[in-house]
Amino acid sequence: MVTVLTTVMIVGFLIIVFLFVTKFSSAFSPSLPDSITLPDGQKPTAFTQGDNWFAVVTEDNSIVIFDRKTGEPLQIMKILGTP
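^ that's the sequence the OP posted. Answer follows.
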């Protein structure tokens, strides 16, 4: 009987953890536009974000900063010292 109760408690705890992870993970994710259009057909290599912006690093070593609400590019910076 103790073994059955222990098993039920472990399974119940795992179900609670699973529900927390699946239900609350979307509450903390940032809101991003459905699609991002990079200038001149550039290809992304990295992504980062702030409170009201997000940035994409492209293959040609540029950083394109976008407005989080509108998805429009705010600034494009070329990384100096790279080929």
